[in-house]
Amino acid sequence: QVQLVETGGGLVQPGGSLRLSCAASGFTFSSYAMRWYRQAPGKERELVAHISIAGGYRSVADSVKGRFTISRDNAKNTVYLQMNSLKSDDTAVYYCNAMNDRSTYWGQGTQVAVSS
Q: Which contacts qualify for 90-94: CB closer than 8 Å, 24 or more apart?
């Protein structure tokens, strides 16, 4: 059974940090590129960060550049999103996504709320 389980969300003050984790099981994690998406209330889901299969290529959205970092540990079947200098605009549900040319999988999401 394929599973992507996100953890690490929560309530944080502006300027704070969170580290999201996404633990994968039920498929060959090291054969999939990984992405983090987010969806704020009333908005479309947007791509936040991408990391290639071996981690050699990484990219983040302009809106989070310099603040968010994506990484992965293929030995632990886990992808991470380190989020620093959080802003209220970062408030959203964050989703983990695994993709290759044959299939794509989604996690259930974890809520991040940035508020004072």
A: 90/38, 90/64, 90/114, 91/40, 91/115, 92/38, 92/39, 92/40, 92/43, 93/38, 93/39, 93/40, 94/6, 94/9, 94/20, 94/36, 94/37, 94/38, 94/48
